[in-house]
């Protein structure tokens, strides 16, 4: 409240009232406080509830977590470009180098513990399992790290380990950034080991000294798999030879020979073309393909409206994308032919998050402008990868719209005060919040177009025809051709892996 900064809170868990907070909670707070780095989430101290019965770590609020971001990209059939992968990897390696230089193991690196700001800055978060370590590996609990990112020495229950366990996790994350699929999505510890061995080959004493003497290896007969499966999983179209070399260095069985974060940053992969995009350009360059989608979307809706058709349920799940990059509007279950002037229809149309305010206020005379409102909501969602107005009810939906765009008046919406629901007293919110919501992800021309879609006054709302000619589409970078939107290698990759499920839960 003192600074007005939005922050994230993580509640510290108590053991009990007498003993207070756990050693792990205190350790997390100490490590966060000491590990100041641009690529590590910043601690803002502690806060307590009004009754002092709950204590929270206060941290900077970061816009996205990498797991959700990647799932959205995957659902849109998009891949990160090489320069985007390099940008993220360099930042991740710098963060981990800083931790290891200060003798700290994270011990739970995974995509959901990596955050990404609107400025393209990666932040490592969640130090609940982090430990300070000594130069000579010592005994620690092996029950750390999320399974899919767990190093083989931990899976084989070694209690002596050190910072190489984080490096293995980085290797798994690297592969996932390239393919948008987990590299080793094991369903159990044994299945995890089997998936690793099938891909990298079953280890031996020659590549991992002492492997055969490990207790689990003595007790379990593992199948013998040859090495070389990594290239079969990740084609050269997706990862260069230098990239594969780095990945193999990160996924070396012998922890003592596994590459360090400092050495990884000097790897030839980061020197070859194309080099990493600057963090400040990360999201801007990623969103240039939004124009390709929006131009096709407007073209489809323009065709519907010219032929006197209202779609009445435009939302992302009703928009399809072919492997050739062609956008298709689908699901015409609520569509209606319309007349001018507008006639009476049922107001219970359009999925809630994309529903125009006139429908929320039970107007039953409407026309094409309800589709244009939905397009505005979808446009914003393409840019931020988050719903613009995710209301939980009709009333909450209105509150969110008014909070985001300002409470309407008869000036911004002629006749508003005469609407039946308009007689309810809504809290007065100022205009101008849309720029704050979109941050620097959308240019001034882009914001102007978005505002034209989201006008309260239906008669003034932009048409699909006019939107196609908006200056936003003439400024650089211009829309790419649909054929370039989804590289053929991605469509081939999706076709080969269509049975796999990105949304599989982590274990």
UniProtKB/TrEMBL annotation:
Domain of life where this protein originates: Eukaryota
Molecular functions (GO terms): ATP binding; protein serine/threonine kinase activity
Biological processes annotated in GO: regulation of mitotic cell cycle
A GO cellular component entry from the record: nucleus
InterPro entries for this protein: CDK (IPR050108), Kinase-like_dom_sf (IPR011009), Prot_kinase_dom (IPR000719), Ser/Thr_kinase_AS (IPR008271)
Domain Protein kinase as annotated: residue spans: 1-270, 263-473
Record keywords, A-Z: ATP-binding, Kinase, Nucleotide-binding, Serine/threonine-protein kinase, Transferase
Residue ranges crossing the lipid bilayer per the database entry: none
Signal peptide: none
Membership in a protein family: Belongs to the protein kinase superfamily. CMGC Ser/Thr protein kinase family. CDC2/CDKX subfamily.
Protein name: SFRICE_029436
Organism: Spodoptera frugiperda (Fall armyworm)
Origin organism lineage: Eukaryota, Metazoa, Ecdysozoa, Arthropoda, Hexapoda
């Amino acid at each position: 409240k003192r600074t007005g900064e939005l922050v994230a809170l993580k509640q510290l868990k108590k053991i009990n009232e007498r003993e207070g907070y756990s050693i792990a909670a205190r350790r997390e707070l100490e490590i966060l406080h000491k590990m100041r780095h641009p690529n590590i989430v910043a601690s803002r101290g502690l806060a307590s509830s009004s009754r002092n019965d709950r204590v929270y770590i206060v941290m900077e609020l970061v816009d996205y977590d990498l797991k959700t971001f990647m799932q959205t990209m995957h659902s849109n059939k998009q891949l990160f470009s090489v320069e985007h992968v390099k940008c993220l990897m360099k930042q991740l390696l710098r963060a981990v180098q800083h931790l290891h230089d200060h003798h700290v193991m994270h011990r739970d690196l995974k995509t959901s513990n990596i955050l990404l700001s609107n400025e393209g800055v990666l932040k490592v978060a969640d130090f609940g399992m982090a430990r300070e370590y000594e130069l000579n590996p010592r005994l620690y609990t092996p029950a750390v790290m999320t399974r899919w990112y767990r190093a083989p020495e931990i899976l084989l229950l070694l209690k002596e380990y050190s910072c190489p366990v984080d490096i293995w996790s980085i290797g798994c994350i690297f592969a996932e950034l390239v393919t948008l699929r987990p590299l080793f999505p094991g369903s159990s510890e044994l299945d995890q080991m089997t998936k690793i061995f099938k891909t990298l080959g079953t280890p031996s004493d020659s590549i991992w000294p002492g492997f055969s003497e490990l207790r689990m290896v003595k007790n379990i007969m593992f199948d013998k798999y040859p090495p070389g499966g990594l290239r079969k999983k990740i084609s050269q179209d997706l990862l260069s030879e230098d990239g594969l070399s780095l990945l193999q260095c990160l996924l070396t069985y012998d922890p003592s020979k596994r590459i360090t974060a400092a050495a990884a940053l000097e790897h030839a992969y980061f020197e070859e073309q194309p080099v990493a995009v600057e963090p400040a350009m990360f999201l801007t360059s990623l969103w240039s393909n939004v124009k390709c989608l929006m131009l096709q979307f407007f073209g489809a809706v323009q065709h519907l409206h010219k032929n006197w058709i209202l779609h009445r349920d435009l939302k992302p799940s009703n928009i399809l994308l072919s492997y050739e990059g062609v956008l298709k509007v689908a699901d015409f279950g609520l569509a209606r032919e319309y007349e001018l002037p507008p006639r009476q229809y049922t107001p219970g149309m359009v999925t809630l998050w994309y529903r125009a305010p006139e429908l929320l206020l039970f107007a039953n005379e409407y026309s094409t402008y309800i589709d244009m409102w939905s397009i505005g909501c979808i446009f914003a969602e393409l840019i931020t990868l988050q719903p613009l107005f995710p209301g939980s009810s009709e009333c909450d939906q209105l509150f969110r719209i008014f909070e985001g765009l300002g409470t309407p008046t008869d000036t911004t919406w002629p006749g508003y005060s005469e609407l039946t629901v308009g007689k309810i007293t809504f809290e007065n919110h100022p205009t101008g919040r849309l720029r704050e919501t979109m941050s620097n992800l959308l240019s001034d021309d882009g914001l102007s177009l978005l505002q034209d879609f989201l006008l309260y006054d239906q008669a003034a709302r932009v048409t699909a025809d006019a939107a196609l000619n908006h200056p936003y589409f003439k400024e650089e970078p211009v829309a790419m051709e649909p054929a370039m939107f989804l590289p053929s290698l991605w469509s081939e990759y999706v076709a080969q892996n269509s049975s796999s499920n990105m949304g599989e839960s982590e274990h």
